[in-house]
Design a protein that fits this description.
The complex is a heterodimer of chains A (115) and B (113). Chain A is mainly β. Helix content of chain A is 0%, strand content 52%. Chain A has strands at residues 4-5, 10-14, 19-25, 32-38, 45-51, 56-59, 62-67, 72-77, 86-93, 104-105, 109-114. The chains are: A mainly beta (115), B mainly beta (113).
Chain lengths: 115, 113
């Protein structure tokens, strides 16, 4: 059963506009969430994260919002740039020790930013 | 990432042959992981290691084995490769359980004919 879901396989936006990528999770034990960005022929790179004790984390043009009651998080990119075109993976983990430090990834969303 | 080297980067092999992928890290990170990436499936965990000679299975471990004889090296072995194991394999490292961020290598593309 998929515990981290990215229901939109792809998203296309115009340069300068906002990109919103969504992610849902089912495991209530998850308490740390990350977004990774992946370009073709490269490994995923860490973008931004958020702990469950927060509902928002911002880093430059990237903001992640967490709605724990809805088990939903989103990544906002403002303004979007053509260089942001990549696959974005949502990931989640638990912080309760043991084996919970492993990350569970969603299937990814391909973002295309058109000039 | 400069601290993680995967080899080979590309490999084509035939069904039934053994294949070993190597991950080498210079970060001295305790935890190491092997993921595979497939269209429509995202990144799925194959095996991971939480220390030298300490390994465990992930969600898609069938047909794979791993070994970690020293901190810097984590080997993934396909004892008898099958076409379903055609994929891109990523190694990742993590400092420890309190640090959730994984750092990934550039990937190894494996084609099994």
């Amino acid at each position: 059963d998929q515990q981290v879901k990215q229901n939109s396989p792809s998203l296309s936006v115009q340069e300068g506009r906002i990109s919103i990528l969504n992610c849902d999770y089912t495991n209530s034990m998850f308490d740390y969430f990350l977004w990774y960005k992946k370009y073709p022929a490269e490994g995923p790179t860490f973008l931004i994260s958020i702990s469950s004790i927060k509902d928002k984390n911002e880093d430059g043009r990237f903001t992640v919002f967490l709605n724990k009651s809805a088990k939903h998080l989103s990544l906002h990119i403002v303004p979007s740039q053509p260089g942001d075109s990549a696959v974005y993976f949502c990931a989640a983990s638990g912080n309760s020790g043991g084996s919970n430090y492993k990350l569970t990834f969603g299937k990814g969303t391909l973002l295309t930013v058109n000039p | 990432d400069a601290g993680i080297t995967q080899s080979p980067r590309h490999k084509v092999t035939e069904t039934g042959t053994p294949v070993t992928l190597r991950c080498h890290q210079t970060e001295n990170h305790r935890y190491m992981y092997w993921y595979r990436q497939d269209p429509g499936h995202g990144l799925r965990l194959i095996h991971y290691s939480y220390g030298v000679k300490d390994t465990d299975k992930g969600e898609v471990s069938d047909g794979y084995s791993v070994s970690r004889s020293k901190t810097e090296d984590f080997l993934l072995t396909l004892e008898s490769a099958t076409s379903s194991q055609t994929s891109v394999y990523f190694c990742a490292t993590q400092m420890g359980p309190g640090a959730n961020v994984l750092t990934f290598g550039a990937g190894s593309r494996l084609t099994v004919l």
